[in-house]
Amino acid sequence: MIDPSELSRRRFMQLGLNVGAAAGASMLLPGLVRPARAALPGISEEEAVIAFGHVGPITDEGWTWSHHQGLEAVKAAYPKAKYLEVESIPYSADATRTFRQFVSEGANILFSTSNYGDFFYDVANRAPDTAFLECDGRTLGDNLGWYYVAHWWPTFVVGVAAGALSKTGKLGYVASFPVPSVYSSTNAFLMGARTVNPNATLQAITINSWFDPQAATQAGTALIDNGCDFLFGIMDEAGYLQVAEQRGVWAAMWNTDIRRYGPNAYVSSIIVDFKQYYVEQVKARLEGKWAPAGTILKMGAGVDRDAWGAKVPADVAAKADAVRKDILDGKFNPFTGPIKDSTGAVRVKDGEAVDDAWLYNWDWSIEGVTGVGS
């Protein structure tokens, strides 16, 4: 079995991206559509077989639930199509078997809602008439595209609120694996907090899972015991939010609004919404206009912050929202150098602004972050 962190690192090496845009509408990265491959031929709605493969359970109220809502939106738009859906696909040869089964059942378009690397690509290479799309992927093929969300922008905004709310300046983070999505999340969060408290730090605990309520609960408890008074993370469930509620500290979440598990602790969440994207991709496939591309959904169009928690002071919300507005208006790019890594070395020069493609592939921790990697 290949560790998912290794899969992500492999993909990171397979495609170096160097283009991007400021926050706003969804972004199609130019130069990533392979012009040698014509669009796949159209099919009728009645002929369509649409498959979704998930990393977790659709009841997680997190990442997989959000993708399932996208599937439900496609069903509403195209009720005559046939739908296939499998939850909790492991990172192993079982994934390849599941994706092959989708193809054998006639899938015309197949979405992998997490990154499965070679387990996915091997199937795509053998099924040229099927459109394959991998969430958090980095590889393009004649019939293979990828998509993701620019979560680092709303994460920076929530970080601004964290900097204002934390009394100790010690922020805690429950991490899954040392992969780019975690680096960009931890880094953006601390950078936002440091606009309010330049001395803020972030301690992460990596639990090697996207969905493990027991491990997330234990990590949240350990972080608070170490003095953290604001918890954040990239989990698909509410484990550490419940700990924050019990211990009287703040917490921000990922994927969906799950404030009911910690109404006093809840600050916000990084909300993802794939519904429009999925409907658009299926529409293109049916009309014979689908071609492989890499797409990053932007803040305000696929990802954003949730409504502020009931206990968040109005002045804190206003401060963070002013930053959000400036980002959306193109007036402010918080990811501008100098940016130092955890060793103190300057990795982004003074005045240099990095873009979404760069942020999508971030693979090192900034100064002040511990527990993820160098």
Helix/strand layout:
Layout: H1 4-14, E1 27-28, E2 49-53, H2 63-77, E3 82-86, H3 93-104, E4 109-112, H4 118-125, E5 131-135, E6 144-149, H5 152-165, E7 170-175, H6 180-194, E8 201-206, H7 213-225, E9 230-233, H8 239-247, E10 250-255, E11 266-272, H9 275-286, E12 294-297, E13 303-305, H10 314-328, E14 339-340, E15 346-348, H11 356-360, E16 369-370
Parallel strand pairs: 2-3, 2-4, 4-5, 5-6, 6-12, 7-8, 7-9, 8-16, 9-10, 10-11
Antiparallel strand pairs: 1-12, 11-13, 14-15
Helix pairs in contact: 2-9, 3-4, 5-6, 5-10, 7-8
Your description of this structure?
It is a single chain. It contains 11 helices and 16 strands. The chain has 374 residues and is of the alpha/beta class. It folds into 2 domains: 4-150 and 273-297, Response regulator (Rossmann fold), CATH 3.40.50.2300; 152-270 and 304-370, Rossmann fold. It has a 7-stranded mixed sheet, sandwiched between helices. The chain starts with a helix and ends with a strand. Residues 1-36 have low confidence and may be disordered.
